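Our collaborator T.R. sent over the components below with a one-line note: 'Predict the complex.' Nothing else. No constraints on interfaces, no templates requested, no preferences about which chain binds where. So this is a plain run: every listed entity goes in together, and whatever single assembly comes back becomes the starting point for the next discussion.
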Amino acid sequence: MAISERKKRILAAVVEEYIRTAEPVGSKAIAQSGCLSCSSATIRSELAELVAMGYLEQPHTSAGRVPTPMGYRIYVNELMQRQKLSLEETEEMNRRMNLKLQELDATISDVSRLASQLTDYPALALTARSAVTIRRFDLIYVDANTFIMVLTLSSSVAKSKLVQLPVSVDQTLVQRLSSLFNAGFTGITEEQVTPLLIKSTERAADDTMGLSSVIAAFVIETLTEANSPAAFVSGENRLLNQPEFRDPDKAHRLMSYLSGGGYVLPPGAEPQESGEIRVVIGPENAAEELKDSSVILASYDAGDNTRGLIGVVGPTRMDYSAVAAKLSFLAAGLSRRLSSGGAPPEGMHNKLIIKGDDPNEHR
Amino acid sequence: MAISERKKRILAAVVEEYIRTAEPVGSKAIAQSGCLSCSSATIRSELAELVAMGYLEQPHTSAGRVPTPMGYRIYVNELMQRQKLSLEETEEMNRRMNLKLQELDATISDVSRLASQLTDYPALALTARSAVTIRRFDLIYVDANTFIMVLTLSSSVAKSKLVQLPVSVDQTLVQRLSSLFNAGFTGITEEQVTPLLIKSTERAADDTMGLSSVIAAFVIETLTEANSPAAFVSGENRLLNQPEFRDPDKAHRLMSYLSGGGYVLPPGAEPQESGEIRVVIGPENAAEELKDSSVILASYDAGDNTRGLIGVVGPTRMDYSAVAAKLSFLAAGLSRRLSSGGAPPEGMHNKLIIKGDDPNEHR
DNA sequence: TATTAGCACTCGAAAGGCGAGAGTGCCAGC
DNA sequence: GCTGGCACTCTCGCCTTTCGAGTGCTAATA
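Returned assembly:
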């Protein structure tokens, strides 16, 4: 049976009222809300049909109605109207973003913290798997026992390590290694760093001390890290604001799942284009722990052709409209700030595009 | 009035029983526990005196006794016996530490996560303020618009940044800057990086584009970061395991305080020597939010003459003895692994001491 | 035929009452 | 000074009652 226009309006009213109050919604409340011009009795019969169709349910015989996941799905797909952010809200968000991201080098943890603060729900940030390679390789000779490795990645980030040796090496070996690695290890993927390649570099450099394999190990480590999808969750404790998580055990279960950081997207739920918003409702989630929670995801352009994902987790009764609006604003702001073209700033200090290890990272 | 030996034993029994059960402790329970050879009536009169002295209190007239902060204080200072860890426990802890710290480069977040996992309480990790300086300064010329800055710190960590310029520079300027900065900016503290110094370097290098100030900004940023005490909290959600935090509001208050990361030690509570354990009980805490929680702190030697601090947060009714034992084991293990002398490993791979930017850091 | 008003009914949540039990303080006897 | 006994107190859990929101149904109405 198709859903009539009036049923849709009633469904939307139920969802919105339930989101607002977290209490089952009665026919009278809908009639009084004024968006429908019919009596509570009419609404009652419509509600009964919506229950039969599976969009609503009753916690018990004499209670109001509550949306089912199916009901939320219809709401999100068809009924929800994109909420507009007020001027104050956009200003506030811009202010916060600028505060956090002024170094033009947003760590994934910053992004998730920001999303959590702005929405007042727990948030997670994920980076997509990408195909970063080494663009340039340098070894700086410091003294007989020390050198510095510097790897410049194709994502325009520099990574470095100080290596202290228990044995002496001479400067020419370091130089030989530097140019050999720069020739052989740039532009290749992690899988292409084979034992064979390492072995041949070792031989070519006349490296009898196994330095090559140490260096190669750092190369692999760096590539692995740069390419693997990182995840970061923050604001788990904001769950406790929600009445559905007043049960400490329930809250604890979800919070420790989130802290574990093993969030997996259900198939097909990944937003494809930058700026797209996806909503995963209750049982649509892959993880058992999320079966009665919803996740709203947005994707943003993190520069260097990689996309990042921000997600917000809440009860199925979450404010989809408001969160989606905030998230898409946030994603747009991040894309603008992070993609290399953006954010024309003032002053020499800002005109430079600086990317590298963030000294603000805690360690 | 001095506390008699018997009173002490009774107090210890109350504290331990209360820690175990989280229920007010009655006279009968103590009598039956067998550690005292007197009747419940005797114990009752002793309990009444302990209440009068302020070491115990009653939630209501006909309930058992609960330790006051003063009672916990006496217990921690005088009565608690250092708990021995079982062989399995030490092995488990060693295993976990090795797992986490195999790269010999423990980030502060790893340390706090470890402490939280091992104790099953929220944990925080702090690094003490230290006096790191730049040991060596390098600029690598990449192309006319790009160079890499590499800062080697006195703590033997290398930090790097890739700088992309909107204008062209020639290689000789980069070299000049490199040697001038290496001469002028090494070995000095953050405060000594004055505008005057920057200005004179700029002039000496014939730097008309203001590169010097950009570079100096990175130097300051790096020094600030390296020297400022970093804090990291993990496992906040474990609070929910504790019966005293079954009230979601209470739990939420403390969790958001902890997530804020603004933990301040009360004066005098900082453990002075590596390995020392300090306990801060309830109202002794500086922050209002912690007034009915306790913090157990241990200090460890993080290498490079800096000390780190790990703390565990729980209700005042926390298992001081067990946590202190675990924490001191953990601190000892960290000291051993992190101070440069330690951990003789096998194989070339491990013989090298590698310090630098951790590619395992999420960003 | 769709809508509305009226009404009896249902069921959960909140409020009140009650007894059980744990624990106390006190007192008299050893 | 310690102990057993005893009356007293207070909370907790359980049960019952009440209250009210909300329903489904039916008959009247546009």
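Summary for T.R.: The two ends of chain B are 59 Å apart (CA to CA).
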